C-alpha cells in the first residue's frame, strides 16, 4: 500500500514539475519579449508603431508602421478559417459517421501524412502551382498575393481541424444516436443535432488549433505572399507579422532589430487575445 502511494506521489511530483516548466517557459518568453520590444515602441511611439501605414526599416529616414502587417495577418487568418474550418468540419463528420471503415482508415492515413509535411513544402508547391494558377485564372501580373497565402493556410490547417474533430466525434457514445433515431430523427438530423453538439467542445478546440497554426505560420506564407509591406489587398503582394520578423531578423541591428522584437511582442499579445476570446466564447456556449 505504501509502495503504491509512493509511486502516485512520484508521478504527481513529475507532473507538477512538468507543469511548472511549461508555465515558466511561457513566463520567460513573455518577459523576454516585453524587455526586448518595449524600447522600440517607446522610441517610435505606440500610435505611430501600431497605426503607421509605411514600413521602411532600411531607408535613410526609416519608418516603422506595422498596420499593414496587422491587417494582413487578420485578413489572412480569417480567410483561412472561413475556407478551412467548414471543409475540415464536414470532412470529419463524413469520416466519423458516414464513410465506410476502409475509406475512413485510408483518409486518416492521408491526413496524417498531410499533417507531417513541412511548411516549406507547402510553400514550394504553392509557389510553383498556386501562384502561376492565380496569375492565369484572374489575369493579374503577379500571383504571389494575399489570396495565395489564404489558400495555402486553409490547406495547412485542415489536418488539425479534421483529426481533432474526428477524434471527438468518434468518442460520442453510440447510445445518444440510438436514442435520437428511436425518437424518429433521421441519421443526418442525428449527426448534426445530437452528435455534433455532444462533441462541440472538441470541435471548438480543433478550430483554436487551426487558428494558431494559421496565424503563426511564416515560411509557407513568405514563399507565396510576395513579402512586400503593402496594405492588404486580395491580389497584391503582402507581408504578415510573422514574415516581417523572419525576413529581416538575420541582418537587422539597432532600432530595426528592436522594432522586430516589438512586432513579435504584438504578435504574441495578438495570439493571447484571440485565445482568451475563444475561451470566453467556449465557456459561454457550455453554460447555455
Task: Walk me through the structure.
The chain has 288 residues and is mostly helical. Helices cover 79% and strands 1% of the residues. It has helices at residues 2-44, 46-51, 67-98, 101-116, 119-138, 146-170, 174-182, 187-198, 200-216, 219-224, 241-248, 254-287; strands spanning 55-56, 63-64. It has a two-stranded antiparallel ribbon with strand order 1-2. β1 and β2 (63-64) form a beta hairpin. α3 runs antiparallel to α9 (200-216). It is globular and about 75 Å long. The model has no long low-confidence stretch (mean pLDDT 89).
Write the SSE topology.
Layout lengths: L1 H43 L1 H6 L3 E2 L6 E2 L2 H32 L2 H16 L2 H20 L7 H25 L3 H9 L4 H12 L1 H17 L2 H6 L16 H8 L5 H34 L1
Antiparallel strand pairs: 1-2
Keywords:
mainly alpha; 12 helices; two-stranded antiparallel ribbon
How many runs of DSSP E, i.e. beta strands? Answer: 2
Class by SSE composition? mainly alpha
Q: Proportion of β residues?
A: under 5%
* Chain-averaged pLDDT: 89
Shape: globular
Number of continuous helical runs: 12
Helix proportion of residues, in percent?
Answer: over 70%
The rounded distance between the terminal residues' Cα atoms is: 44 Å
* Topology as a string of helices (H) and strands (E): HHEEHHHHHHHHHH
Radius of gyration: 23 Å
Instruction: Give me the side-by-side strand order of the main sheet.
Output: 1-2
Q: Biggest sheet, in brief?
A: 2 strands, antiparallel
Low-confidence stretches: none
Amino acid at each position: 500500500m505504501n509502495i503504491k502511494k509512493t509511486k502516485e506521489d512520484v508521478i504527481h511530483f513529475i507532473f507538477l514539475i512538468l507543469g511548472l516548466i511549461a508555465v515558466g517557459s511561457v513566463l520567460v518568453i513573455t518577459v523576454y519579449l516585453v524587455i526586448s520590444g518595449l524600447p522600440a515602441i517607446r522610441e517610435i511611439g505606440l500610435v505611430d508603431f501600431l497605426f503607421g501605414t509605411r514600413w521602411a526599416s532600411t531607408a535613410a529616414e526609416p519608418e516603422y508602421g506595422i498596420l499593414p502587417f496587422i491587417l494582413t495577418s487578420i485578413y489572412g487568418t480569417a480567410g483561412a478559417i472561413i475556407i478551412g474550418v467548414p471543409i475540415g468540419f464536414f470532412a470529419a463528420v463524413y469520416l466519423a459517421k458516414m464513410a465506410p471503415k476502409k475509406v475512413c482508415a485510408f483518409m486518416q492515413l492521408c491526413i496524417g501524412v498531410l499533417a507531417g509535411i513541412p511548411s516549406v513544402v507547402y510553400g514550394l508547391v504553392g509557389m510553383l502551382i498556386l501562384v502561376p494558377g492565380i496569375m492565369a485564372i484572374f489575369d493579374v501580373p503577379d500571383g504571389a498575393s494575399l489570396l495565395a497565402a489564404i489558400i495555402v493556410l486553409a490547406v495547412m490547417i485542415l489536418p488539425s481541424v479534421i483529426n481533432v474533430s474526428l477524434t471527438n466525434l468518434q468518442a460520442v457514445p453510440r447510445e445518444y444516436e440510438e436514442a435520437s433515431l428511436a425518437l424518429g430523427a433521421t441519421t443526418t438530423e442525428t449527426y448534426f443535432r445530437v452528435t455534433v453538439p455532444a462533441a462541440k467542445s472538441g470541435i471548438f478546440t480543433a478550430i483554436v488549433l487551426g487558428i494558431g497554426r494559421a496565424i503563426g505560420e511564416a515560411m509557407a506564407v513568405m514563399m507565396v505572399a510576395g513579402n512586400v509591406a503593402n496594405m492588404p489587398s486580395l491580389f497584391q503582394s503582402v507581408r504578415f507579422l510573422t514574415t516581417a520578423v523572419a525576413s529581416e531578423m538575420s541582418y537587422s541591428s539597432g532600432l530595426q532589430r528592436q522594432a522586430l522584437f516589438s512586432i513579435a511582442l504584438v504578435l504574441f499579445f495578438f495570439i493571447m487575445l484571440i485565445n482568451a476570446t475563444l475561451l470566453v466564447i467556449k465557456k459561454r456556449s457550455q453554460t447555455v
